[in-house]
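Lesson 9: reading folded outputs for more than one chain in a single document. The general rule is that every protein is listed as its sequence immediately followed by its structure tokens, and records are never interleaved. Here is the first one.
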Amino acid sequence: MRAVPRRFELTLQTEHDPGMVVRLRPAGEFDGSVVPAFDAVTTRVGELAPSAVIVDLDAVTLLDSAGIGAIMRLRSLAQDRGASFTLLAPQPFQQRLFTITGLSHVMEA
């Protein structure tokens, strides 16, 4: 098992396959204290006008309601712009959070 940073990091990667795909990889603790940074990146994603947005939560060690809210805002932005949205939540605690909140339909295991 690899070490995951406690502090928050966010990687934005773009791919062209065939349209623009934006992949976001947050790492560390995704809570209310880092939502403004995530929201700033969300604005940038909207400006890029991708055909698909993927959020990969593999390296997230903590996810609270503020983080979930930020993810859902990004999902709405992507869908409003006609982009597909994929949420990869591979860890059991993440899957439980999305199930408990009634949002399990937005994630891909």
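And here is the second record, again sequence then tokens.
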Amino acid sequence: MKEKCSKDKFFAENKDKILAFGEYFLRKLSDSDMLYCKGYLKYTPHYNTRNLAVCDTFSRYCVAGSIRRKVVNMVKMTYHQWEKLAEESKNRNIALGVLPDVPLADLENGLVMARMIIQNGERYWEIKSEGETETKIFPELLKMDLWGVSVTCKFNPYIGKYNTPEITELAGYYGSQWITWMEEHHKDKVREMKSAGTFLAVAQSVNRDARNYRKLLNRQYEELHPRPSEFYGEDELRAWKFTRDYYTDNATMRDNVLMAVTQPF
């Protein structure tokens, strides 16, 4: 039978985390004039964190069993919870030593463990595969050369691999349209560009040029067909935008995208 951990022992072993969490919790309540601490305070209006009585009550609440569950939950944050945090909150949790891991039930590809660690101030993922005795460490972000372009890829702890974007995601809207058209009508030229490592660079060049061309067309269209005022209502404005976009998008595809270019410009 496990020895029951007393409140004093638990507080001594986790003092830093409890105090840090207590300060963070109190800061979160600083703009509130109502505080409710389970087991010690009833619904009490007109109390804030500057009130010593509330602070004292909260300190006793910290040592109670309820805070133990909160501290344990902090330490065992899942990756799913972690991804919902803003970057500022992630850095705050790192300062408190609160790092995410992936529950065993969510792991794939034979993984039995995946947890985040900090080395030299940088985030890494430590993973372990079934049947292996040693763990492997991967940086959270890694620059890769994909299709001749340097891309920052993020480690996926669920599968133990980096998420690499599709070429169409990096090429942009018109670049992806150009890729689809080239792969259907000019397969030989596509193979040559892929071998030379210039395929994505050309697609991104097409996308930039097409976007600039469409902006020009939008300005010209609005000069010839001024935008309707709010007096005419939303339906009239929606119809005007639809007509403008239809014209400028088709003209951009025809003049700048559906071309068999093989060099960036």
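What the second record shows: The first strand starts at residue 34 and ends at 35.
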